[in-house]
UniProtKB/TrEMBL annotation:
Pfam families: Metallophos, Phytase, Pur_ac_phosph_N. PANTHER family: ACID PHOSPHATASE RELATED, PURPLE ACID PHOSPHATASE. Keywords: Signal. It comes from the Bacteria. One of its GO terms (molecular function) is acid phosphatase activity. Residues 481-805 form the BPP domain. This is BPP domain-containing protein. The keyword Signal applies. The lineage of its organism: Bacteria, Pseudomonadati, Planctomycetota, Planctomycetia, Pirellulales.
Length: 808
């Protein structure tokens, strides 16, 4: 019998680094890392006693394995994916990854047989190898295109270095006839690939295991250059891409942000992962880097476009590819929809450039992503959306193309329904199985559990437009409930005729004394389980409440000031939702917490806090230029400090003052990450706007003066809200008039003013516009109130406010 020691493989020591996060992890494990591999150590040793950071006392808190370990390459091939760089009838491409120690990379292949004896007559082909430097280190990618294969034939192959091999897996060449086949199409996978997308892609595989390929319409990952996310993308699919080829086009999330060091200007380009991970045809326009191409498969021309870049030059190329197309069917895929399913995300440039070509050359089907909802049209031609009556069902004589937006991952947006949409869904993960069989194309969309959700059939007719027959299953439409607004109630007004809106939830608890500021953490998976974090300077506590108003956590912080939050911030190799609050006693500090997604509680991650200069309030800012994280502290007398938060070698955040802003006594502040601006409210002057990058001017612009628009001062809490039209509103609490002013910052022109019943001398406010489940399906406004002793936080559904303002 093998001893446990023998069963555990000798350690694979990452070559490049034994420092930083990896080392920290091993230290935390409190074991000699040479003794065991990671998996073995963590699964076989039993309840591990972890050494604490000071290594003096121990506890049993599990430690997250850093991504650099989970996704480290080894000499054993992984991330194996079949694609086609050339003709699918006679070629097959395959790509895989290893660590950089691998010098020899080959594919062995043979015609598949019923038993194992194919190994006696294999052929081999050497790979072309390239290194890729990622945020987790160096790796090598190897690719081979096998050619001269026999059409419609099952092959067996493996990849490796002659010693470390993959398993033998199958692929099948395409037929050189227009034989029937199916393929699976998915929209954005993008987020939580391991935890959430995996079940969808596996359900799709179990429903269509013989699909010729899996087609991705962009946003495969969320962060283009995150090697861990690419690792999750492969993990989620398991062996599927080793036997089912992948066809994909890039989304906006496959674009790397590149900042010009001198000018600070940010440009975007396709991530280097793309060309390493995939081998797509190089028949696109020059410089398209395998993101624009066409491929014929059994009677269908598939055209992949890159809607992120150079859309005009692609139109010229597209016309040539459509003109010279002998195939019976034409399917086009790209990321940004021709018919967007979310308001404010219209892509009219694409529609005007590409759709006339789809019409002219009778493209049958266009497959898009990007909008994180589902929407499928009838037959549409350029401009027809303006006069399509709703409810075209059954058959249609209209010429045009069917357009689909779909989503396969868990990130969900609100739907903007239009009359020409034949079937829509919100909050639903879907995959689509499309079968082409002679003159018939059959389309079925299924939800993550395999439930049929949409269907239609297109039929080719001699000299006539395609016939579209709707085949929508009985499954009820999945859309969010309408906001619960008491419409009939007359709007109350105060003496100045300002609408007074009644809140629907009051957050307080016996310990509460003055809940001065707050922030909201949205649980993206189940928004109804989101929490509100209040900072109480008199109780010396942070309070966490659920959306039912129940206090779920109370943490001690000495005289906390303003509390703010950012999602998906890097911390010790993973991404966390970071909560920051300034502390005003026991030393001026910045305190940092993460939100535990399971318990929805705050967990301190700051080793006691980061020292700052004198502070009063402040806000977080995350640069869109280079992803750096900052906190702006406001103060009673000495302007604002911009503090850069960066991770140290031991994986914790440290703070460094990088700039001083000249501004008077201030408390409330809010940053616009996208536009690189920070707004600071001073009690006596108004609201100042500053450039938020550390290289920006230290002087601000007074964009809102006390006295304007009936603003009396002092100004306290500020909140920023914006929609996809890029219209940004700043909401300001005007204590002098006990009202809230809503002012357009960028785009938009109307100003609004409202008050909340029983909200007096309000300090902190927050506006959230996403869905927060059945109680707050369209967001809410939260504000502190000095009206009674406990200083509650009052929560008001946004539709109630919009209704009172007459803008709903
Ligand atoms: Fe997306
Ligand atoms: Fe997108």
């Amino acid at each position: 019998m093998l001893s446990i020691k023998r069963m555990i493989a000798p350690p694979t020591i990452p070559r490049d680094v034994f420092e930083g996060k990896r080392m920290t992890y091993w230290k935390k494990c409190g074991i000699a890392f040479l003794a065991f591999t990671l998996n073995a150590a963590c699964t076989l040793v039993g309840p591990t006693t972890w050494a604490h950071d000071d290594e003096n006392h121990t506890h049993e808190t599990p430690v997250k394995v850093p991504a650099g370990i989970t996704y480290a390459p080894t000499a054993v091939p992984d991330r194996i994916v079949l694609t086609w760089a050339e003709d699918p009838t006679t070629t097959q491409s395959v790509t895989w990854r290893t660590d950089t120690s691998v010098e020899t990379a080959i594919v062995e292949f043979a015609t598949a047989e019923d038993g194992p004896l194919f190994v006696n007559h294999t052929q081999e082909k050497a790979a072309k190898s390239e290194t890729l430097e990622t945020n987790l280190g160096l790796a090598k990618y190897h690719s081979v295109t096998l050619s001269g294969l026999v059409p419609n034939t099952k092959y067996v192959y493996r990849v490796g270095d002659g010693v470390n091999w993959s398993e033998w897996a199958h692929f099948i060449t395409a037929s050189d006839q227009a034989d029937p086949f199916s393929f699976v199409y998915v929209g954005d996978a993008q987020n939580d690939l391991k935890s959430h997308w995996s079940r969808l892609v596996r359900q799709a595989y179990s429903d269509a295991p013989r699909a010729a390929f899996l087609l991705h319409a962009g946003d495969l990952v969320n962060r283009a250059d995150s090697d861990a996310e690419w690792g999750e993308w492969f993990y989620a699919q398991g062996f599927i891409p080793r036997s089912t080829p992948c066809v994909a086009v890039p989304g906006n999330h496959e674009q790397s942000k590149i900042a010009n060091e001198e000018t600070g200007e940010v440009t975007r380009r396709l991530t280097n992962h793309w060309e390493r991970v995939f081998e797509f045809p190089s028949n696109g326009p020059e410089s398209s880097r395998e993101s624009v191409y066409w491929m014929d498969y059994q009677g269908v021309r598939f055209i992949g476009l890159d809607s992120n870049n150079d859309v005009e030059s692609q139109a010229v190329w597209l016309e040539k590819v459509l003109q010279d197309n002998p195939q019976n069917w034409t399917v086009v895929t790209f990321h940004h929809p021709i018919y967007s399913s979310k308001r404010g995300r219209d892509n009219s440039e694409l529609r005007d450039l590409w759709q006339p070509l789809f019409d002219k050359y009778k493209v049958d089907l266009v497959l898009n992503g990007h909008d994180h909802t589902y929407a499928r049209t009838g037959l549409m031609a350029h401009g027809s959306e303006k006069n399509v009556p709703s409810g075209i069902r059954a058959q249609s004589e209209i010429a045009g193309t069917v357009y689909v937006v779909s989503v396969s991952g868990p990130k969900m947006y609100e739907l903007g329904r239009e009359p020409y949409m034949q079937r829509v869904a919100e909050d639903t993960q879907l995959y689509q199985i499309i079968t082409v069989d002679g003159d018939e194309l059959r389309y079925v969309a299924r939800t993550a559990v395999g439930r049929p959700y949409d269907g239609f059939t297109l039929t080719k007719r001699e000299g006539k437009p395609n016939q579209l027959v709707e085949n929508v299953p009985d499954t009820p439409e999945r859309v969010r409930p309408e906001a619960d607004v008491a419409e009939a109630e007359p709007v109350k007004r105060n003496a100045d005729q300002v609408p007074v809106v009644t809140s629907s939830l009051r957050l307080t608890n016996p310990e509460a004394k003055d809940q001065d500021d707050l922030c909201v953490w949205r649980d993206k998976q189940s928004p109804e389980h989101s929490v509100i974090i209040a900072s109480d300077k008199s109780a010396n506590r942070l309070f966490v409440y659920d959306l039912e108003g129940k206090l779920t956590q109370s943490i001690e912080v000495s005289k906390p000031g303003n509390v703010d939050l950012r999602y998906d911030v890097p911390f010790q190799g993973e991404q966390i939702d970071l909560v920051a609050v300034n502390q005003r006693e026991d030393g001026f500090k910045l305190r940092l917490f993460r939100v535990d997604h399971e318990t929805r509680e705050l967990v301190a991650i700051d080793q006691g806090g980061i020292a700052t200069g004198p502070n009063y309030g402040g806000c977080l800012y995350r640069s869109a230029v280079d992803d750096r994280l900052y906190f702006f502290t406001t103060s009673k007398e000495d302007g604002c400090e911009q503090i850069e938060l960066s991770e140290t070698v031991n994986g914790f955040y440290t703070g460094k003052k990088v700039r001083h802003l000249d501004v008077g006594m201030s408390e409330g502040a809010v940053a616009d990450d996208q536009l690189g601006l920070v707004y600071v409210a001073t009690e006596t002057e108004g609201v100042w706007r500053f450039e938020a990058e550390p290289t920006g001017q230290p002087e601000g612009t007074l964009i809102l003066q006390i006295g304007d628009n009936g603003i009396q001062g002092d100004l306290e809490g500020v909140a920023l809200s914006y929609d996809d039209n890029q219209i940004r509103y700043l909401t300001v609490s005007d204590q002098g008039s006990n009202t809230f002013h809503v002012l357009p910052m960028v785009g938009g022109s109307s100003t609004y003013r409202f008050s909340i019943e029983n909200a007096e001398e309000t300090d902190g406010i927050e506006v959230v516009t996403d869905s927060f489940g059945p109680k707050f399906p369209k967001g809410f406004f939260a504000c502190h109130s000095h009206h009674d002793e406990s200083c509650p936080i009052l929560i008001t559904p946004l539709p109630s406010i919009l209704n009172a303002l007459g803008t709903n």
